[in-house]
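Lab notebook: predicted structure, single chain.

Context: the supervisor wants predicted structures on file for every construct in the current expression panel, including those that have not yet been purified. This is the next one on the list. No modifications to the sequence; it matches the entry in the shared construct table.
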Amino acid sequence: MNIPVTFLWPQLLWLLLALPLLVLLYVWLLRRRKQAALRFASLAIVREAMGKGPGWRRHVPPVLLLLAIATMLLAAARPMASIMLPSQEQTIILAMDVSGSMRAEDVQPNRLVASQNAAKAFLAELPRHVKVGIVAFAGSAQVVQPITLSREDLVTAIDKFQLQRATAIGSAIVVSLSELFPGQGFDIGAMTYNRNSDPFAPQGRAIDQPKTETKAFVPVAPGSYSSAAIILLTDGQRTTGVDTAEAAKMAADRGVRVYTVGVGTVDGEIIGFEGWSMRVRLDEDSLKEVARTTQAEYYYAGTADNLKKVYETLSSRLTVEKKETEIAGLLALVASILALFSAGLSVLWFNRIL
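Prediction complete. Output recorded below exactly as produced.
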């Protein structure tokens, strides 16, 4: 994998032109030493007295020293590289479907229990500094556990899930966003019933209340918000609430990635409860579109094992982030190691520093 590298002080790279001069100096010294040896009357006698020559080993310390100098010159130019580093400030919202279709048993023991177990395993694998909030949704969406570092509180909230009717996928995304951005005044009612073309505008004010100006929202690039992400897990199709595509666009405008996880089988399963029955199918197209719009990814979990693997993958993806970092210190360390090896081998083989 190619890692692009830039330099803060690229003008210092001109110093690398001194390396060929050092190589020429080394070659000149070798020839001078050879000419000095030829002045002896009998070179064979000198070789016999000295024993077997150092051979290729005499070139190793100078080569290592030359590499150390080159590395130090690169470090002096202050190189910058985009590398994957552990995230220092990360928040994850788990938006989990608790609609009646989650009682289907095509994922053993059933979809709800499998999702609960996988979510708890996911929490156990997360670094302790990662904050997590939980949104449960069926006919509506609610924050069942505000953002917290307490894994115990999160597990308790997951264990208390209660199945309900209908599926409001879009509302789950909006409520997740409201948890991440509490000061933006999301109005799910306005978005659901189209009472106002601007769901963030004030819906009314008292006569004696002074008129306040709302700060205009400025969209950002999709996927650019690296401090938080949403994991949306569902097994069905949207039947109520905010339009899913509209909610995905809201997340994209705020740079938040929405990773979608589809639970169950694509063909669906017929389930019955309290005298009614219905076929519940997985709407993969909508979930893929949400992931595409927000620059995230869609994962299909057809079995309980697959669901656990999905969460393991998400754990590794969401706890690291790509950052442009200066790597001069790393190069300086490499240069120091090369210099130490050069000096150590010279002392070991020839009883001198160089």
